[in-house]
């Protein structure tokens, strides 16, 4: 997968319509996403043809809002150039074939297919024809529908796909609906890389998805969660996004492997922080060591507490001051049967 990172989860700052139709705000969001450490700034490409006119007729002001938040093709090209200047990947979700073609001309690193189009074979095939990797959100979808979508892509030779586990609610009404273990399940079921598109409030669930192995994180992004608009309330602000971007790097590294390893650093600390066997009191030469002669204190550079048995019953070869670390050289080689009483 060309755009994925070997060392961290790929973080998409989903600006979407949070620019509220203002291109200066759109550029400000791009700059803030870059400063926060996101890998990509993503928008959404639509026109008023997104809904049927009959639906607009039943929903007052919807068409006006769709038009107000839409980004013209020339403006989208300008945003792509600004992303290039800012050194952050540019992407946008197309909502029609013409928008797909217009975005393809801007050379994005991937095509994002929204959950609403997972069951739209024509859109999937158009995306596959670009030859670009596809990120496919799975909101609303059954396993059968996901399988059909992947089969459709594979039928035209496209296998460069990342699935995004997604709950298409803004936000989900309860945490129990999120089912983050679907990240592992989808990968096991279909064998494709899996990420997570997060619509929850806050970032806790986002971080948990990274810990479960999500290779892509998509999170709505805003400069101000209190702004009017569709997605600001469920979005990460710059401080949130900085935490997500940092976690996308640290958590995969920290997950490591299942192999148990004691590092050199731990070994160095063990020498100070573990315990050794010390004389519980002054011990005279010739005394036979018993449990009463032994205490266990730091540092861990002497004999381990678990090896006390090899000292018991053996005669001391010299006078030993109390609270001194004992060594094998302090006792006779073999246990002694006679000696001075304590």
End-to-end Cα distance, whole Å, is 74 Å
Strand order of the largest sheet: 3-2-1-8-7-6-5-4
- Which term fits the overall shape? elongated
> How many structural units, i.e. domains?
2
Please give the count of helices: 11
> Portion of residues in helices?
25-40%
Rounded radius of gyration (Å) = 31 Å
| Pattern of helices and strands | EHEHHHEHEHEHEHEHEHHEEEE
Describe the structure.
It is built from eleven helices and twelve strands. The radius of gyration is 31 Å and the shape is elongated. It folds into two domains: 10-255, Aldolase class I (TIM Barrel); 264-335, Alpha-Beta Complex (Type Iii Antifreeze Protein Isoform Hplc 12), CATH 3.90.1210. β5, α7 (143-155) and β6 (161-166) form a beta-alpha-beta unit. α1 (23-36) runs parallel beside α4 and α9 runs parallel beside α10. It has 342 residues and is of the alpha/beta class.
Give the tags.
342 residues, TIM Barrel, Type Iii Antifreeze Protein Isoform Hplc 12, eight-stranded parallel β-sheet, 34% helix, elongated
Set out the fold topology.
Elements: E1 10-16, H1 23-36, E2 40-45, H2 53-58, H3 62-69, H4 73-86, E3 89-94, H5 97-104, E4 111-113, H6 121-129, E5 134-137, H7 143-155, E6 161-166, H8 182-190, E7 194-198, H9 204-211, E8 216-220, H10 238-255, H11 264-273, E9 276-279, E10 294-297, E11 314-316, E12 331-335
Parallel strand pairs: 1-2, 1-8, 2-3, 4-5, 5-6, 6-7, 7-8
Antiparallel strand pairs: 9-10, 11-12
Helix pairs in contact: 1-4, 1-10, 9-10
């Amino acid at each position: 997968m060309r755009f994925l990172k070997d060392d961290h989860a790929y973080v998409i700052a989903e600006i979407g319509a949070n620019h509220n139709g203002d291109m200066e705000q759109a550029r400000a969001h791009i700059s803030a996403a870059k400063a926060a450490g996101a890998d990509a700034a993503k928008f959404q490409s639509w026109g008023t043809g997104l809904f049927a006119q009959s639906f607009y007729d039943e929903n007052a002001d919807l068409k006006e809002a769709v038009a107000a938040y839409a980004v013209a093709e020339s403006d989208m090209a300008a945003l792509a150039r600004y992303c290039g200047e800012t050194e952050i990947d540019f992407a946008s979700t197309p909502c029609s074939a013409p928008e797909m073609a217009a975005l393809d001309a801007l050379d994005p690193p991937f095509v994002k297919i929204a959950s609403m189009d997972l069951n739209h074979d024509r859109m999937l095939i158009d995306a596959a024809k670009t030859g670009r990797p596809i990120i496919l959100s799975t909101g609303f979808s059954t396993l059968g529908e996901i399988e059909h979508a992947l089969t459709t892509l594979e039928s035209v030779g496209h296998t460069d796909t990342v699935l995004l586990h997604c709950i298409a609610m803004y936000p989900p009404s309860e945490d129990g609906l999120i089912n983050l273990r679907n990240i592992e399940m989808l990968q096991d079921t279909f064998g494709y890389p899996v990420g997570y598109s997060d619509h929850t409030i806050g970032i806790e669930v986002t971080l948990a998805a990274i810990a479960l192995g999500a290779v892509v994180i998509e999170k709505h992004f805003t400069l101000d969660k209190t702004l009017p608009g569709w997605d600001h309330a469920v979005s990460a602000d710059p401080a949130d996004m900085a935490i997500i971007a940092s976690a996308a790097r640290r958590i995969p590294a920290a997950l490591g492997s299942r192999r148990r390893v004691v590092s050199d650093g731990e070994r160095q600390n063990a020498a100070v922080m573990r315990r050794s066997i010390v004389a519980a009191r002054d011990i005279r030469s010739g005394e036979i060591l018993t449990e009463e002669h032994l205490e266990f204190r730091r540092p861990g550079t002497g004999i381990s507490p678990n090896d006390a048995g090899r000292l018991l019953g053996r005669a001391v070869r010299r006078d030993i001051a109390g609270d001194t670390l004992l060594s094998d050289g302090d006792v006779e080689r073999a246990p002694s049967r006679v000696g001075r009483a304590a």
